């Protein structure tokens, strides 16, 4: 029994040290991102832009998100809101926005057709023909963006090699513990992984739903939005297809914010499982490699299995220092999350939950989304 516990402790300690190395890589990648954007000279490239959003239901701080898009310091753009249901609740917020900003180009567009299982993409595909401008920007309905957002995103297209621009984002937690855990994971692990992928792969080869800026020409070349109406990770697919077509996908030097709901633990688990199984389906090798990102959990497990071994204590100290440092460098240094210090005590619990999600994600490919159950196969949704 003692020998078995020692073996378990050794394996966990090694995984913890591998995790420490990964967190050090996150710190390095975050530093590279910050230094690059401090020294980058922005080019004034300001083409007119059509911003497109698909609406379904009411999100937290939704009107604040809409309103932030009317305060952009940018010469010419329009806001297009697509809805599939003429009785959509959020249309009232669009009307309020039109009244508050009568000089802005704001339109609500009815999209009655169901083109596929991904309702958001189905709606956007019907909004696109109504867009006046060549340059398109798609983002989620709950995104709050700073006044210089469009300038900092669109300047990327001054480089003709760039076919898409995306951006980092931070989660604004609600009041519940699961909501705070989700924000903590988003603002440390997920964004850290994006920055590491950018360094390891030379560029990002995917897009994030917080910002997907491109052109109609690029969309035509990669098969249009209609080709994605049955995909779950449409943001990932748009970026991956753009990169595969030979274009650069640029990561802008701007961070936007998304408000997270007051999740119950069940809702939190369902959301995490949907994300996990989609990533596992699309990036198999990288997803298995996530085993090292649970380094803090492995360090604690190593200590529990071998409390009398000096090296389990050493492994835990090393990985804890690296984990908390990486969280602060990414969460505060890059994303400027004002709640990072407040919620940092949740990090060990959050990492154990993330490990449980990772293990459970290998038990099937079924997910729940918007109250319906699907299977994910090769990125596509299939009804159960």
Fraction of residues in β-strands: 15-25%
Q: What's the structural domain tally?
A: 2
Which oligomeric form is depicted?
A: single chain
Global mean pLDDT: 92
Termini separation: 44 Å
What is the tally of helical segments?
14
- The strand order across the widest sheet is 3-2-1-4-7
- Spans of 5+ residues with little confidence (pLDDT < 50)? none
Helix content: 40-55%
Relevant CATH superfamily of the largest domain? Spore Coat Polysaccharide Biosynthesis Protein SpsA, Chain A
- Within the CATH hierarchy, at the fold level, what is the topology of the largest domain? Spore Coat Polysaccharide Biosynthesis Protein SpsA, Chain A
The largest pleated sheet is described as: 5 strands, mixed
Please write the string of helix (H) and strand (E) elements: HEHEHEHEEHEHEHHEHHHHHHEEE
By CATH, the architecture of the largest domain is named Alpha-Beta Complex
Determine Rg (CA atoms, Å).
22 Å
**CATH class annotation of the largest domain:** Alpha Beta
Morphology call = globular
Classification by helices and strands: alpha/beta
In total, how many beta strands? 11
Topology:
Layout: H1 2-39, E1 49-55, H2 62-68, E2 77-83, H3 91-100, E3 105-110, H4 119-127, E4 135-138, E5 143-144, H5 149-154, E6 162-172, H6 177-200, E7 212-215, H7 216-221, H8 234-244, E8 248-259, H9 265-282, H10 284-288, H11 295-305, H12 310-334, H13 340-343, H14 347-360, E9 366-369, E10 372-377, E11 380-383
Parallel strand pairs: 1-2, 1-4, 2-3, 6-8
Antiparallel strand pairs: 4-7, 5-8, 9-10, 10-11
Helix pairs in contact: 1-6, 1-11, 1-12, 6-12, 6-14, 9-14, 11-12
